[in-house]
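User: Continuing from earlier, I have the next pair ready.

Assistant: Great, send them over.

User: Here they are, in order.

Assistant: Folding the first of the pair now:
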Amino acid sequence: MARKRGITDEHIIEMYVSGMSYVEMSSNIGITNRAIRNVLVKHGIERKPIGRPRIYQVNEHFFKTWTHEMAWVLGLFITDGNVQKDLHSISLAQKDETILRKVAAVMGAHPVIRDPIGTRKTPLLIINSKIIKEDLKQLGITSNKSYTVPFPDVPEQYLPAFIRGVIDGDGWVDREGYSLNITTASFKFAMGIMKTIECWNINPFLQTTKSTSSQKNIYRVWVKGKQQVLTLAQIIYLNSDSNHIAYKKSRMFFHSDPNNLKLLGKFQTAQGRIRFRTTISIERLEPVKQLAIKQNVPINRLLERCINQLLNTKENITICKTDRPKDRIHFKTTYQKSLLEELRVLAKSRGLYINDLIEYSLKFLGDRGK
C-alpha cells in the first residue's frame, strides 16, 4: 500500500494521539497498520496496548444547532481554523491555549492539543469527525477557504457572538480602544462583516491592500473612534460569558474604565492632543523650524501637515533602516490623537517605526509649506 499524497508523519501522529483507530488511520492514510506503527516508533511516540479503547469524545452535532457558543466557535474556525482535504479532521490554531480548551469544552471534545512544531508557531486543537467536517462544509468552511469563504447565513440573534469569534480569530484591537480591524482574504466575507456592523449603527470602512507574498488582495474592515469601538463591544460581549480573548475585550472597553481615562489624561493636553517624543534628524528638522517662524505657526502643525500628506500618498514608501541619519535628537511635541494612531497603523503594516515615518514625511514639507 502507498501512502496518500500530502500525508506527513506529523499528520499520522496527530491522528493517533487524537484517538483514531488503526483501521480508520489505515483507510485515511493508505498504508498498513505495521507501517503506521513504524512511524510512531521512529518518532518515539508512546503506544497504547492493542485492544485498549481510545478516548475520542466530541459532540458531532455541535454545528447543527445555533447557540451563542456555536456561533462564537464558528467565527474562530472560519478565521483561524483548517479543514483537512483528504482526512475527516479539522483543527484550530490559537496563541492562547486556554482558548483552545474553552472551544473543546463547549464542543464536548477531548482536548487533543498539539504543541508548536516546525514552522507552526501556535498550539493546535485537533478534532476528527466526518460529521463535523460535513457540517462545516455546509456552512461554507472547506479546505483552502481563505480567498473564497462566504459570510455564513447566521441568524440575527447570534451575529454578535459570531463577530466576537471573528475578532478573536483575525481581529486586531488598539491598546487604547480607539480602533480595530478584521483582516480577511475573502471579499465576500469582508462585505458580510461590513453589512453586519452597519446594521448596528456603526460606520466601518474597507481598506484593500496587496499580500506581499502572493500579491492577492487583502481586505481590512476598520472601526475607528472610541465611541464606535465601545458600542461594538457592548453588542458582541453581551452573552459572551468567558468565551472570548480577555485582552481584546479589555481593549475594546478601554474607555469605559475610569482608571484608564485617568491614565490617558497624563499623556493628553487640555485640547485632547497627545504628547509624543520622537527622534529626528537635526538637519531635516531645521527647515521645519525656519518655515514655522516664517509662517508664524507651531512646528507640530507643520509636522502634522507632512504626516497627512504621507498618509494620503499613493507612492511606495521606501526606508532603508541602515541609512538612518546619524544626527538624530529627541524631539517632543503634541499631535492629534487620531493622526498619531493612523501613523502607528501604517508603521505596523510596513514593519517600520513611527520615528522613521515622521522623518520620511518631511519630504512633503515643500508641497504643503508654500
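And the other member of the pair:
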Amino acid sequence: MRIGLAGVGRIGAFHARTLLGLDFVDELVITDADPAAAERVAGELGVRRVPGVEDLLARPVDALVIASATPSHADLLRQGIAAGVPTFCEKPVAGTLEETLELARLEAASDVPVHIGFQRRFDAGYRRIRDAIAAGDLGFVHTIRANTHDQTPPHAGYIPTSGGIFRDCNVHDFDAIRFVTGREVTTAYAGGSNKGEPFFTEAGDVDSGAALLTLDDGTSCLVSSTRYNGSGHDVRMEAMGSAATLTAGLDDSLAMRSAEAGVAFPPGPAHATFMDRFQPAYVAELTAFAGVARGDQPSPCTVRDALQAFRAAEACDRSRHEGRMVALSEVADL
C-alpha cells in the first residue's frame, strides 16, 4: 500500500517510523505545514515528501494518515473524504463540538471509511477488560477508575489550541470507558486546579483535573488527569465488579511506589511518554487501519465514536466552569 502521512511533528514522526516497520506499507509519502520539518524527517527516514495534502491525494495514495496539529484535522479529514481516500485521523477530529458534529454527519453521508486514533482500543489490557465485562467475569461492574497522568507538561504553545485537559487528555479515558463497557455517559461533574506553570491559567485551562461520570446502567466512573506526574507516564483503568476487579496498566512499569514496608513492586522502569506506554497498541491500530482501507473490516473507531467521547469532555468542561453536574442530554448530538 502507498500511505500518505500529513504531519510529522512528535506523533507524526512516530507514526512514520511505525508505518515503515509494517509489511503492508510499500511506500510512505509525507507532508507537513513546516517544509523544513518535512524535509528533515524525509531525509532521516528515506521517504518522499510533497508540498501539501493535495499533492498526497493526487499521487494517488491508498490511504491517508492525519497526524498534524489539532486545528488542521477537520479540514484535512474533509479533503480525505472528498477524495474518496480511506482516512485515519488522530484525535481530536476537530476543536469544537459543532465542527465534530458536522464531520460526523459528513461521515454518515459518505461511504469513505474513517478511523479515529484512540489507540487504547488496541491495548491488550483494555481489550481484556472489555472481554471480561462482556463475558460477565467481573459480575456487575459498579465502579471504573481511569487516569491519564503525564510525567511532564507539554510546551506552553500547545495548551491554547489543545482544547483543555478534558478534551486533550481525558478524552482517551472517556472513549476507553465506552469501549470496555459498551455503555454511554449520562452525567458528568468535574473540576480542576493549577499548581504548576502559569501558562495553563493564562489559557483558561487546568494542569490537573478530576471527573465523576455516571453511565446509563448506573456505573460510577472516577476519572483523573494531570500534567505533573513526576514518577512517570501513568495510564490505567480499573474495572471493579461484584465478582472481581481487573486492571489495565498494572505491571512492572507502574509509575508509583508503595508506602508499605518491604514492598518492592513495581520495580520499574516507568514509562516516560504515551509513545512508550502504547507502542504495541499503535502498531496494532495502524495495522487495523490497513484492513479498514482495504475493505476487510469496518472502522473500529468512527467519527461518531469520537463525537461521543468529545461530548463527555464537553460536559466535563462545562461542569468545571459552571460548578454543577451536567447531563449529556444538554450537549448536542446527532
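Worth noting for the second one:
Residues 2-119+283-300 form a domain with the Rossmann fold fold (CATH 3.40.50.720). The two ends are 34 Å apart (CA to CA).
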